Amino acid sequence: MMPTSVPIDAYSPHGRKPKRIMEPRRIMLYAVLLVAVLYYILPLWVMVMTSLKGMPEIRLGNIFAPPVEITFEPWVKAWSEACTGLKCEGLRAGFWNSVQITVPSVIVSMAVASVSGYALSFWKFRGSEVFFTILIFGSFIPYQVMLYPLVVICRELGIYGTLPAVILIHTIFGMPILTLLFRNYFASLPEELFKAARVDGAGFWGIFLKVLVPMSVPIFVVATILQITGIWNDFLFGVVFAGTQNWPMTVQLNNIVNSTQGVKEYNLNMAATMLTGLVPLTVYFLSGKLFVRGIAAGAVKG
Amino acid sequence: MKSSISVRDLTLNFGAVSVLKNLNLEVAEGEFIVLLGPSGCGKSTLLNCLAGLLDLSDGQIWIKGQNVTWAEPNERGIGMVFQSYALYPQMTVRGNLSFGLKNARMPQAEIDRRVARAAEILQIGPLLDRKPGALSGGQRQRVAIGRALVRDVDVFLFDEPLSNLDAKLRSELRVEIKRLHARLGNTMVYVTHDQIEALTLADRIAVMRGGIIQQLDAPQTIYNKPANLFVAGFIGSPSMNFLHGAVVDGGRGFSVAGTVIALEGYDGGRPVEMAKAILGVRPEHIDIVHEPESGRTIPATVELDEPMGADSLVWLTTGGAQLSVRVPVERRLAPGTAVHLRLDVGKASLFDAVTEQRV
């Protein structure tokens, strides 16, 4: 007869396996992380420190040293006084131009791409796969190749050098990646949901707006972040299509930093650069978690 | 009886692949039809065609005397229940139930009345203000049934509604669907690959394979008199035993592994001599005896037995073939025992090995 139970042997391993604190793989991990942190934090440190120094202190050359005397003057000057070409009004004007370009471009490009992604995943038509392939293929062609034809098109449309032109260009160039993103996300949603909505009598727009969009918040967040940072950081389309009076912040920044006359005001340049980068940086900080979640959700199926 | 659904010469091709071939099906009003078959047999495709979710290549579909071949899903007078429930996750249960009615611009008072009635029938009243994410699988499927119910339609379409549920819930909800059918008296078309669901629920079962209905009959007929070898093998668990042999003596005997069994009392057509025939016998229609009886038994050797609670399944070999026999669980047979099997020819099915059709 087998005994019904045997007591545990307290002197041999039992229960949870103990963990060592300094395992070799942990040491390796932290070493790599430390190097990565230094790699990214050092330039930032130099920028912040330089932007808070006066020019005499900068000339001493100790770029890593914190400022002896903290001054915010370079920041103020970069925002409102620095010369960007003929005018000396700082980055302020460029900031508002960038807002005027970014907000409508983000909205229009996402509206167009989400609807086409929806149509490509749920309302397949003859040749829809070919259409999608061509669209994706478009993202592999360098921008510069299409620049001149697009300038001509904008001129013929009579919008060259205006805000609508640059918004149109951003919408066009956002299409491949955004459509891919939306199509893959919608393709990961159960098809039966779409069928149920059709039985319930919802049409093309009804299904999209009432059923799918409320389920797709993560992918809309991802697309928003991608577009805001992409369009805000854009230089080429802004300088080519927007027209001088609408030049975005990046173009103004370039004009400040790359001006070849007079003394190089390093503190002002650093401050201006950070001011320009502040918007995408803020967006990342506020939405980091949602961003990762949305990217992962979109990547499940493709 | 009046016809509720009439499928006429339905053909569906996906590119070069033919999924449904000249399919004809008449469903009477209030009838419960189960479409049964292995995956890829076209049963779900047929249901999607009925719902209007797939465009057909040729043929017609009539529902309630209307030709709905080109009609949109919501214009066909159908309600549909899906395997994955397909509830709208951002809407409450109430929102899910009323979505279709709102799309039809129904007055709010009528929507409220119908939602209340569905909630009462399905006992989901307390769940109305919850979201689907907060419901269990069984509750979700009830809501999904409710969504078909509020549409107040004559035809319900079920696409494997119980396949995502665990075994216990499945049998509970199965009974509930049967009860619902008895109460509402709607026409129901139900797709499943589970033969227990098919046998318990259906008025008639359509067994499908390769886009063709193999047999359309009452469950008992399907079980006892399968039209062909495929239906015989597909229905029944454990499945039917097949003995490969020949019909001899002018159709009076079946010869297998050197033994001849008399076909006297066979329930079917009059057998004729065939060089290659198959005798199908279900495990419960075989007796294990210890003495041979001339013309009634074949010798066999016990291989192993599988006690299954209520009864026990004994596996035997005879002339190279393997057979299973259902016996009371108390009856234990040691492996290696030589026994004789008495087949109940009156409940067996004889198939022509070439055409695979039942004689």
Summarize the structure.
Chain A is mostly helical. Helices cover about 70% and strands about 0% of the residues of chain A.
The ordered string of helix (H) and strand (E) elements of chain A is HHHHHHHHHHHHH
Largest sheet of chain B: 6 strands, mixed
Q: Supply the CATH architecture of the largest domain in chain A.
A: Orthogonal Bundle
The topology string of helices and strands of chain B comes to EEEHEEEHHHEHEHEEHHEEEEEEEEEE
Radius of gyration of chain B: 24 Å
How many domain modules of chain A? Answer: 2
CATH class of the largest domain in chain B: Alpha Beta
- Which blocks of ≥5 consecutive residues of chain A have pLDDT under 50? none
Q: Can you count the beta strands of chain A?
A: 0
Main pleated-sheet profile of chain A:
none
Keywords (chain B): ATP-binding, Nucleotide-binding, Transport
GO molecular function, one term (chain B): ATP binding
InterPro entries (chain B): AAA+_ATPase, ABC_transporter-like_ATP-bd, ABC_transporter-like_CS, ABC_transpr_MalK-like, ABC_transpr_MalK/UgpC-like, Mo/tungstate-bd_C_term_dom, NA-bd_OB-fold, P-loop_NTPase
Protein name (chain B): ABC transporter ATP-binding protein
Description of the molecule:
The complex is a heterodimer of chains A (302) and B (359). Chain A contains 13 helices and no strands. Chain A has 302 residues and is mainly α. Chain A has 2 domains: 24-71, no CATH class; 92-299, MetI-like fold (Orthogonal Bundle), CATH 1.10.3720.10. In chain A, helix 4 (92-122) runs parallel beside helix 7 (163-188), helix 10 (217-233) runs antiparallel to helix 13 and helix 12 (249-257) packs antiparallel against helix 13. By secondary structure, chain B is an alpha+beta fold. Chain B has 2 domains: 3-227, Rossmann fold (3-Layer(aba) Sandwich), CATH 3.40.50.300; 241-352, OB fold (Dihydrolipoamide Acetyltransferase, E2P) (Beta Barrel), CATH 2.40.50.140. Chain B has 8 helices and 20 strands. Chain B has helices at residues 43-51, 93-103, 108-122, 137-149, 167-184, 195-201, 219-224, 229-234, and strands at residues 3-14, 17-28, 32-36, 58-63, 66-67, 78-81, 155-159, 187-192, 204-209, 212-217, 241-248, 253-256, 259-262, 274-281, 286-289, 297-307, 311-318, 321-328, 338-343, 349-352. The mean pLDDT of chain B is 92. Chains A and B meet through helix 8 and helix 9 of A and strand 6 and helix 2 of B. Chain B: It comes from Paragemmobacter amnigenus. Chain B: Residues 5-235 form the ABC transporter domain. Chain B: Keywords: ATP-binding, Nucleotide-binding, Transport.
